[in-house]
Write a structure and sequence with these properties.
The chain is α/β, with parallel strands linked by helices and 162 residues long. Helices cover 33% and strands 15% of the residues. The termini are far apart.
Amino acid sequence: HASIFSCARSNIKKVSLELGGKSPLIIFADCDIDRAVKQTCNAVFFNKGENCIAAGRIFVANSIHDKFLRKLVAETKKYVIGDPLDRSTAHGPQNHKAHLDKLVEYVKKSVEGGAKLVLGGERLPRPGLFFPPTILAEVEDNNFAAIEESFGPIMCVSRFDD
């Protein structure tokens, strides 16, 4: 980053850097759980997670974690997966096979590193490049999913002591 700064400064250039992200979403114990679940799903799964401001990590207070996770799974299962031109569809296909393959590998590495696959995680057995909304839980700070951005519909849930 220092070399980019040096080049920009020496040429008096304005720059805007895309540095990737793992934007946190923190769910406290005193939240309205049903509302928080819906907002969390929107924050992660909007536009199939292909969104530079998607919530990259979900931190949930330990005292409500299990209940929150159950509700997340139930809400996520409601997503209609299909043709993006159909107004009833909430989740369409990935744009490229290479990206779909990257998402499958992302989940695999995360699970190998200790994350728990709660929902989704594999290409759907149907025509098209469909990868379902996916939930990983027990994502520790050193896990692949905690460090790397998926740029896809993968929710990474961690707990914190409250």
